[in-house]
TrEMBL record:
Residues 735-866 form the KEN domain. One of its GO terms (biological process) is IRE1-mediated unfolded protein response. This is Uncharacterized protein. Keywords: ANK repeat, ATP-binding, Nucleotide-binding, Signal. PANTHER family: IRE1-RELATED (PTHR13954), NON-SPECIFIC SERINE_THREONINE PROTEIN KINASE (PTHR13954:SF6). SUPFAM superfamilies: Ankyrin repeat (SSF48403), Protein kinase-like (PK-like) (SSF56112). It comes from Pocillopora meandrina. ATP binds at K493.
């Protein structure tokens, strides 16, 4: 209501102003002066009560002519006259016989005048008096469509402000014309490149123009682009580079048909830009034709070659390269087939140099050579001769028959000169790779190189494996292999069916599938069989833990190895799988993308069964499996009830921890005897003696390592930690967490008060800690610790509150100096930053950890024990 009242008042003001102006100029305002002819007469009749929207023969009202006159010869009087008509009720949305409103008619009218900047003023006037910005002409074009079409003839200001004006007055920025085109479609399709072309596109997009809108033919604006500037802008704004229209054509298909975009002079840099934006030159339309084929068929051979160079030498994206190698048209022809029959010798040679298979066959089993031979009579003889020689030089086989059994010799019957070329002893080029290969392995790269070139290898299913194995089991061999589908490196495990128990094979597959999501377990890919063998395909690893420790490797410490092994065993046990044969030969490593250890060989593994009434069993009968020197002691007994269990896996895992930390030394292996002798009848007693006396633990092991190994290698299975609890041991803590633990214990009430002020008896935790650390006291005997203590307790009153012979007081001191370091010198603070307490008291953390077990449910300590 308020808006209507405002409009009414505005109209009254304009009417009054116009009446006064007309009265002042009544002596000068005559029909010839304004040249209104019939419309002027209509206006005069209106003053006597005639209809203001009376039309002429073309269906135009007085308002049409008034707007045209204002636009052609602008003046204040003509503007006022238009405003007067509108204020008197002239319909701004009236349509003439051509379906034009005064607003849309202003666009073609302006082309006859040089006063183009008045368009904005006219549009604003019409819109302010109710002209609908979303009105369309008979071609279903909105003012925005018309504006964009004529943008190259208008000033940048008029176009820029016009887009905003129409959009703000209700013209949808993505409205469609009769063909489904949005204004952005029409902008991209502009055939004349103006200075403000990109600015117009940006303005439409900024106002909400959809870069991936489809017209009735399924085309996006990118399909319609006529110049590289709109192409680059649309791609930058998120246009889909490979959107397909209703005939399956991508923008790149369309570009080949536009000489403003693609000719035979397109440079490598432009092709690289197209590839970087995601455009796929191998994407086929509904007829099975890709943009590269279009280039060849149009004879753009130089541009085609530069595109290939951009793909293989500049862009170097493996997926795009592999798409080129795998491309097949509707007849199964590769890019090499297509290049051969389009007489593109330079392209043929380039593809052959890039490893394209010279003997690849299409649907009719034709190689590039046999396809060329079949075209005798349709291709120029000289071109056929050159292509035959080129293919022969690259090891083309003329004896490969097509689907009708015809070899090249047969196809060339009657052409003896060409047949003679097949028999020429021509110097051959070195053999290039014929198979995709995603290079990762360093150790097996020579064998994999042989495979990629088709040398010394055999094919099973889609896998090509080397003739020489890299691993051997009782009745299995492991070969390095390549998957021909994607070039992935794999390990192919071949098991002899005659010696293989079906249950064992099924068990291994079942375990691998169950554990396939764990990064610390060798990744299972698939399995299949032939008449004589069963095959298991897994990821290719570099070698065993033995081999890794025998070789110098930078950047990976033994702690990382133990961490990977722990992650694997935790995942196994979480999924109710026991390995039963953990040993260095079954821990494999890889170096890409980073060094990692993984658990392998599940031939002896067992999934623990779950029953409805008794739950899951944590043990499995049979102690004869596994390798003696890596088995738990309970498995050596003559007791028929001896069973493999999660606890026996933990024991073997502990042996592997020691083996890794001690750089290849077995914890119970006397250097004077063979490791295999550990399996003697006295093994249990030997292990017990070794554990109790830590006799054969490597002296270089840290206190935290000895702490966890002592538990993992316990003679009693029920005293060994579970796999999930291993991570709570200080061995897996960094120095920051160790110090945090000591500070948290020091914050417990029992540790906060000086011993000299205690009236209560010591707790069990305090007594046990004092007993465990009695050999490390007094702690002031260490010069670095004494310096920190002296600075911190410079006031004698504070010094008397500590007893240097007390381990509890040491923990309290650690807590206090870290909580209140202000009184310490820079040197003392530096010692704290270097964790001097951990360095000088290596057993402190494990002693406190063991002693404080009774407090593990306390709020501040709970997280360290779970």
């Amino acid at each position: 209501m308020l808006e209507r009242a405002c409009n009414s008042r505005r109209c009254e003001r304009i009417n009054e102003r116009n009446r006064k102006l007309i009265q002042r100029q009544s002596g000068r305002l005559s029909v010839p002066d304004v040249r209104y002819t019939q419309h002027a007469a209509g206006f005069l009749s209106y003053r006597k009560g005639a209809c203001i929207d009376q039309t002429d023969d073309s269906g135009c009202t007085t308002l049409y002519q008034a707007v045209s006159e204002w636009l052609i010869r602008p003046s204040v009087q003509k503007r006022l006259f238009v405003e007067f008509l509108l204020s008197r009720g002239a319909n701004p949305n009236f349509k003439n016989n051509s379906g034009e409103s005064p607003l849309t008619k202003s666009f073609p009218t302006f082309q006859a005048t040089r006063y183009k900047d008045h368009l904005l003023e006219i549009w604003r006037c019409l819109l302010n008096f109710g002209a609908r910005a979303k009105i369309k002409d008979d071609s279903d074009r909105s003012p925005l469509h018309i504006l964009v079409n004529l943008s190259c003839k208008l000033s940048p200001k008029t176009v820029d402000e016009g887009i905003v004006l129409f959009h703000e007055h209700g013209c949808a920025i993505n409205c469609r014309d009769a063909d489904g085109n949005t204004p952005l479609h029409l902008w991209a399709r502009l055939a004349v490149k103006s200075q403000n072309l990109e600015k117009v596109g940006n303005k439409i997009i900024d106002r909400g123009g959809t870069v991936n809108a489809r017209n009735d033919s399924g085309e996006t604006p990118l399909h319609l682009a006529q110049f590289w500037e709109p192409v680059d802008l649309l791609l930058k704004q998120g246009a889909q580079p490979n959107a397909q229209d209703l005939s399956g054509e991508t923008p790149l298909h369309k570009f080949v048909d536009k000489e403003t975009l693609i000719t035979d002079k397109v440079k490598v840099g432009r092709w690289k830009k197209c590839l970087t934006s995601g455009m796929d030159p191998w994407k086929k339309n509904d007829s099975g034709v890709c943009p590269f084929q279009d280039l060849l068929e149009k004879g753009f051979l130089q541009s085609s070659l530069r595109l290939l160079k951009a793909v293989f030498e500049h862009y170097v994206d493996e997926e795009t390269i592999e798409s080129a190698r795998c491309f097949k048209d509707s007849e199964g022809n590769s890019l090499l087939h297509l290049a051969c029959i389009t007489q593109a010798d330079a392209i043929c040679e380039y593809l052959l140099q890039r490893g394209f298979s010279v003997n690849n066959q299409n649907i009719r089993l034709q190689t590039p050579l046999s396809l060329v031979c079949s075209r005798v009579g349709t291709l120029p003889m000289k071109n056929i001769q050159n292509t035959i020689l080129l293919l022969q030089k690259h090891h083309a086989d003329p004896k490969i028959p097509d689907d009708k059994g015809n070899t090249c010799q047969v196809l060339l019957n009657g052409h003896e000169d060409l047949k003679r070329l097949l028999r020429i002893d021509i110097e051959k080029e070195p053999i290039l790779p014929i198979m995709k290969w995603r290079k990762e392995s360093e150790k097996h790269k020579d064998a994999l190189c042989d495979i990629s070139c088709g040398q010394k290898c055999q094919r099973v299913e889609s896998y090509h494996h080397h003739k020489h194995y890299i691993g051997k089991g009782s009745f299995s061999l492991v070969f390095p292999a390549l998957d021909e589908r994607d070039g992935r490196e794999v390990a192919l495990k071949r098991l002899e069916k005659a010696r293989l128990e079906d249950a064992s094979f099924r068990r291994e597959i079942e375990c691998l599938m169950k554990l396939n999501d764990c990064p610390a377990v060798v990744n299972y890919i698939c399995s299949f069989s032939s008449s004589d063998f069963q095959y298991i395909v897994v990821e290719l690893m570099e070698g065993t833990l033995n081999e890794y420790l025998d070789t110098e490797h930078e950047g990976v410490n033994a702690f990382r190895i133990c961490s990977d092994i722990y992650s694997g065993i935790e995942y196994l046990h979480k999924n109710e799988v026991i390995h039963r044969d953990l040993k260095p030969q079954n821990i494999l490593y890889k170096t890409t993308p980073s060094v990692a250890m993984k658990i392998a060989d599940f031939g002896l593994s067992k999934i623990l069964q779950t029953t409805q009434h008794f739950g899951s069993s944590d043990t499995v009968m049979h102690s004869m499996v596994g390798t003696k020197c890596w088995k738990a002691p309970e498995l050596f007994t003559n007791d028929s009830q001896s069973k493999y269990s999660k606890e026996s896996d933990i024991f073997s895992c502990g042996l592997l921890f020691h083996y890794s930390l001690a750089k290849g030394k077995h914890p119970f292996h006397d250097p004077k005897e063979s490791p295999a002798q550990i399996g003697s009848p006295n093994t249990t007693e030997n292990i017990k003696d070794n554990i109790e006396n830590k006799r054969f633990f490597c002296p270089s092991l840290s206190a935290e390592a000895v702490h966890i190994l002592t538990r993992m290698l316990s003679l009693k299975p029920d005293e060994r930690p579970t796999a999930s609890s291993l991570k709570t041991f200080p061995f897996f803590w960094d120095n920051a967490k160790k110090m945090d633990f000591l500070k948290k214990v020091g914050n417990e009430d029992e540790f906060t008060k000086p011993r000299s002020t205690l009236t209560r008896p010591l707790t069990d935790v305090e007594r046990q800690l004092e007993k465990q650390m009695k050999n490390a006291l007094p702690w002031t005997s260490n010069s670095s610790i004494n310096d920190i203590f002296s600075e911190f307790t410079s006031d004698p009153r504070y010094r008397d509150q500590y007893e240097p012979n007390s381990a509890v007081e040491l923990v309290r001191l650690i807590r206090n100096v870290h909580e209140h370091p202000a009184n310490l010198s820079r040197k003392a603070k530096s010692l704290l930053d270097k964790h001097v307490f951990l360095e000088q008291f290596p057993h402190l953390v494990t002693d406190v950890f063991n002693s404080a077990q009774q407090w593990k449910e306390r709020t501040n300590l709970k997280s360290f024990y779970e």
